[in-house]
Design goal:
mainly alpha; 4 helices
């Protein structure tokens, strides 16, 4: 009977360890989100921050899928911020071109 109880304790410890094992948050996803937010705030070098943030977020998404890490929401939010700002900048560019052509 003692051997059965000791085996149960070991199995319980293994299951408890796998359940409560903490997954890491992907650093590239966090860096990408931070760069995207800095791009919103910073006046100069805005485009550099957006491009770098977008690249870091994409790399983070790929790594999250491969490694099973956390931080997918960070990467997706960073990509959404960068995409919205990119579309906004394109609209401004097209507007400036239209104005300069006399439309």
């Amino acid at each position: 009977m003692e051997s059965q109880n000791s085996n149960r304790g070991y199995a319980y410890e293994v299951v408890e360890e796998t359940i409560y094992k903490e997954r890491k948050t992907n650093r590239n996803a966090v860096i990408g989100l931070v760069l995207s937010i800095i791009g919103l705030i910073a006046a100069r070098l805005r485009i550099v921050f957006y491009i770098a943030g977008f690249i870091f977020c994409l790399i983070g998404l790929v790594q999250i899928k491969e490694r099973g890490e956390r931080g997918k929401a960070y990467a997706i939010i960073g990509i959404i911020i960068d995409s919205i700002i990119f579309l906004f900048l394109l609209l401004i560019l097209f507007g400036l071109v239209a104005i300069s052509n006399g439309y």
